[in-house]
Amino acid sequence: MGFSFVLRYSSVLASFFEKNRIKSLIFLSVLSFVFGNLSFARDYPVKEVSGKFCGNNQICTIPLPKIEQANYLNYEKNPLIRRIYSVLWGGTYFGGRDFGWGAHKGVDITSQIGTPIYAIGTGEVIYAGKKGERGKLITIEHSFAGKKIYSNYAHLSEVLVKVGDKVKTSDLIAKMGTSGNSTGPHLHFQIDKTEGKHPYHPGNCGGVTLNQNVNEARCWNLVRENTLDPILFLESNGAIFEVEQESEQFSPDIKVLSTQDLKKNLETSFEKKGDFWLLTLKSLTPGWTRVPLKITSAGAKIYPDSLSYLSGERKIFVQEFSGTFFPISIWEGEKLIKNVYEK
Q1: Which residues contact 42 (CB under 8 A, 6 or more apart)?
Q2: HEC sequence for 322-336
Q3: Pair (42, 179) in one structural domain
Q4: What are phi and psi of 172, to 5 degrees?
Q5: Is residue 71 within 8 Å of residue 268, measured between CB atoms?
Q6: Could you tell me which of 248, 128, 260 has the C-alpha nearest to residue 198?
Q7: How does pLDDT run across 151-190, given as a tens digit for each residue?
Q8: Which has the higher per-residue pLDDT, 341 or 29?
């Protein structure tokens, strides 16, 4: 299986939060102007979690630690966040946090049975009840940017809404549980971006079990086409969905980089950081790429391996696994932009 990481459009979020909060707000305001009113503020489906988080082996309740700015590198360093977000979008059931190696369709958030679950945005309940391995499930249809998206809340202990109910952002809709195919109390939170059965599932994909499909990243391409990274969606106020739907409709103030721009203005540098390398990409002309750039290497794991926006310096983590350093190639679709060599 090829090495593929979770952030198909990771650069969109990174570009929001370049350098400092002021620039972040400026960039978010630009996106709001380009894409219209973004109605999904940072409203997670869980506000507080309970567990043995406070020492002395005692159960306590704390505010849900958010993966601010969808920064999965910080997530990797924070054991509390890793414990609470047990499986990420694109993760595996045995690794959970090894995003990009699996085909998990949502994010799993762990807490105690009975933890309140809230609607992430205004919408209409289109499913509320039991549904196979998902146990007790709620699906809400939202109108967003002229499209429909669907938020799914699975493995519930109590369903507090019914089909046809209109809900608003942060309305209480359910309580966390472990119903269906579940090994412990958690919320499986999934966002579908296409119509059909919800929560989206691509079928058996040739696997013997659901676990095999997820753990071996079977049909990962279909998962990416039909679902969104929930954390990235919330942390971008929905802009990641806008980018996917409206990628050709840019403001005149936001430059779309041509192949010539990339070849001329893309600068790179390497720095050794312990057992991995840090590759820095810098575009002298910031802007969007026409298609996501792919960063590949025959001898290394790369994160993130896909970028859609270049602004300031973008950091790429490179970890060798072959013992021999291979060049890293940067592609625009099928066009090679440049090869980068260790210095």
Answers
A1: 66, 234, 235, 237
A2: CCCCCCEEEEECCEE
A3: yes
A4: -70, 125
A5: no
A6: 128
A7: 999 999 999 999 999 999 999 999 999 999 898 999 999 9
A8: 341
Query: pLDDT, tens digit, for every residue of 237-264?
Result: 776 665 555 443 444 445 778 888 889 8
H or E stretch at 138: strand 136-144
- Nearest C-alpha neighbor of 30 from the set 181, 199, 236: 236
What phi, psi does 26 have (nearest 5°)?
A: -60, -45
Instruction: Give the tokens for residue 302.
Output: 């790369």
- Count of positions (residues) in the chain: 343
Element housing 153 (H / E): strand 147-159
Where does a domain end: 189, 219, 245? 245
pLDDT at residue number 243: 52
293 domain-assigned = yes
pLDDT reading at 294 higher than 60: yes
Domain that holds residue 265: 256-340
CA angle 197, 201, 204 (to 5 degrees): 125
